[in-house]
C-alpha cells in the first residue's frame, strides 16, 4: 500500500514528559468540536461505520485493538458519533509520571496506563493524544502498550501518523520519536476527510 496523505499531529514538536503533559492539558482545553454541518454528515462517513464493524469484529480477537489513522479532530468525531468519552493519554499519563523519577518512569508507564483506562470501566474506550507514548526517554513500544491494555477491553486508539507501505509510521525519519511498525494483522480504520475509507481486517 502506498503512502497516504496524512501527517503526524505533533511531529517535530515532541519533547520531554513535562512537555507532553503540558501539551495534553492544552489539547484538553482546545478540544475540537464538530460543526453543525459536520455532525449532520457524520452518518454518511463510511469510516465511522467501519469503526462500528471493527468494534464488533474485535470481540473475537486476543488483542481488541483498533487503530484509527486520522486527521485533526478524528478522535472527537468518533467520541461524538459513538458516545464515547475520549481519554487524553498525554495529559492523564503525564501528570503521574512527573511524580516519578526518570529511572522509574519506563517501569511504571504500562501499569499507569492500565489503571487510567481501567478506571473508565467501559467495554470500549477511545484513546486520543498518544504523543507521550513515543517520548524517547520512556523507552516504550507504543503499539505493544496499546495491545496490552486491549486484552480486557476494546481500544480505539487515534494514531497521529500515517500508513505507509504496509507500516504505521510516526514522526519523520531522523526525529527522536520516529517509529515504524508493521501493520500486519492490525485492525485499521483510516479517517479520510473526503469520506473514502480504507483499512484492513
Structure description:
- Helices cover 36% and strands 19% of the residues.
- The protein contains seven helices and nine strands, in the order H-H-H-E-H-E-H-H-E-H-E-E-E-E-E-E.
- The protein has helices at 17-29, 36-41, 46-58, 74-82, 89-98, 105-118, 142-149, and strands at 65-70, 86-88, 124-128, 154-159, 162-164, 167-170, 179-182, 187-191, 199-200.
- The strands form two sheets. It has a six-stranded mixed β-sheet.
- Helix 5 packs across helix 6 (105-118).
- The relative contact order is 0.23.
- Residues 1-15, 29-33 and 194-201 have low confidence and may be disordered.
Short description:
This protein is α/β, with parallel strands linked by helices.
The number of helical runs is 7
Terminal CA distance reads: 14 Å
What class would the helix/strand composition place it in? alpha/beta
**Count of extended strands:** 9
What percentage of amino acids are in beta strands? 15-25%
Q: What is the averaged pLDDT score?
A: 81
- What global shape is seen? globular
Q: Percentage of helical residues?
A: 25-40%
Please describe the biggest sheet, giving its number of strands, its sense, and whether it closes into a barrel: 6 strands, mixed
Strand order of the largest sheet: 2-3-4-1-8-9
Write the element-wise H/E pattern from the N-terminal end onward.
HHHEHEHHEHEEEEEE
Q: What integer value in Å does the Rg equal?
A: 16 Å
How many domains make up the coordinates?
Answer: 1
Q: pLDDT under 50 segments (min length 5)?
A: 1-15, 29-33, 194-201
